Structure formats: structure tokens, C-alpha cells
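Ticket #4471: structure export looks truncated?
Reporter: QA, pipeline team
Priority: medium

Steps to reproduce: submit the single chain below to the structure queue and open the exported record.
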Amino acid sequence: MKILAIHGPNLNLLGQREPGIYGTITLDQINQSLRERAAAAGVTVVPFQSNHEGALIDFLQAEGLDAAGIIINPGALTHYSLALRDALASLHAPIVEVHISNVYKREPFRHTSVIAPIATGQIAGLGWRGYLLALEWLLSIEG
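Actual output as written to the record:
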């Protein structure tokens, strides 16, 4: 079983970008935690990060058709990328949208997600552990 962990723009800067909001954990550390937990359950996590909308869509089209689940933090694309939303909507796997910060306590433009209506669920404001919670949920429904 394969679960995708997709990280959008600027998430490659985790650990150094606005640590008061996003913490000090790096993206590599998050991906390693996901891989370790998934391996313990006999599952593979395939992480992918890009600052480019088209690269995220290409990855989804290449890897998403046989994925058992998708964890995605679209970053700023959350609020306006209809192309990413459509790519996700074309897949059959459950989708969990994750945000490290509580986007609903931040600027008003962050309160709207074009991804949420096609996502199975959303986790926001629980820090990097939101990714692990998303993985746990996906494992529970697949197990």
C-alpha cells in the first residue's frame, strides 16, 4: 500500500521559515517520521515537495491513481489553485488536507480552501504532528 505525502510551495523551508508559526522541525524530519510510522504498519509513504503547481499536478497524475491515500499541505495553493483541486478530485483515494498552523486564526485570505470541498478531511493548527495524525487516520481506514 502506498500513501502520498505532498508538500506545496515554501514547505521546503520548514525549520527556518517563520519558526514562531511553523516550528523548527524540517520537512526532511517530517517525511522521516511519516516513513518510519508507515513502515511499522507495512505501508510505503512517498513524499514529494515542489514550489511549482504543475510539478505537484504531474506527480499526482503519475503516482495518485494507485495511491491508497493522500496527505497534502498545498501551502498557498490551498486558497486559489483550481488546477490542483481538479487533479486531486480526479483521484479515488481519500485525501487529508493538512496545515501546520491554524489557518482560521490567521489572515482572512487563509480561511478559504478550494481543496477542502474535495478532501475527505482537514487537520489544521496541530503543528507538524498533523501529518502523523493524517497518516494514522489513513492507516485506520485501510487496515
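Status: closed, not a bug. The export was complete when the record was re-opened. Leaving a note from the reviewer for reference: Residues 27-40 form the longest helix (14 residues).
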